[in-house]
Amino acid sequence: MLVKPAFAHHPFAMPEAGNLNALQGLISGVGHPLLGPDHLLFLLAIGFVGLNRPRQWLAPLLAAGLLGSAISLLIPLPETLSVYAEALVSLSLAVAGLVALGKASPLLLVPLISLHGYLLGGAIIGAEPTPLTAYFLGLFISQGSILLLVTTYSKRLLDSIGNGGQHIAAGIWIGIGAAFTWSLLIP
Q1: CB burial class (10 A; 0-12, 13-18, 19+) of residue 165?
Q2: What pTM was estimated for this model as a whole?
Q3: CB neighbour list of residue 126: distance below 8 Å, 6 or more residues apart
């Protein structure tokens, strides 16, 4: 890989974290979950996993994701482990599919979104306090908006696609997660 995974999907090919200003930090925070397909697909998957009372999951999932990002600032990921952490993030798509099929507990979504947050937070290590705060605000805005959207409309989505559609979507997410994981681990 020519680009370090942590910096692989900053919007507009922004500089490394130490060189960000507040606006770039905000844009990066908003864009990072949207430009990383594994992160975006995981957030979208929450809409079809069939959570009971999905809106009640919004705050815990958002908090867990932001907590994961904060932890990455205290305990940075060693470079030697980054490909494995990215593989686990990709594998989380398969787990979301298993949750949708009722083969795994929805509670697994909480530590998995923390893992996503951990890797998203790693992209800002080394930033000054102002762009760092702006980055976290951007993450809060983008992840919160996506989670609000998918938890608000998940019941309507599930009603429209039916049980068969949910199984097909789960299979697609499992396949995408397995393919992303494979591509990271097998050169």
Answers
A1: middle
A2: 0.86
A3: 16, 17, 18
Contact of 41 with 152, CB cutoff 8 Å: no
Residue 23 lies in a domain: no
**What is the token pair recorded at 15?**
């500089």
How many Cα neighbours within 13 Å face the side chain of 67? 11
Query: Domain limits at 108?
Result: 35-185
- Alpha helix (H) ranges present in 49-108? 58-74, 82-100
* Cα distance between residue 88 and residue 90, in whole Å: 5
Q: What gap in Å lies between CA 163 and CA 99, rounded to an integer?
A: 13
174: left (phi over 0), alpha (psi -120 to 50) or beta: alpha
pLDDT in tens, 159-168: 999 999 999 9
**Structural domains of the chain, count:** 1
Structural domain contains residue 148: yes
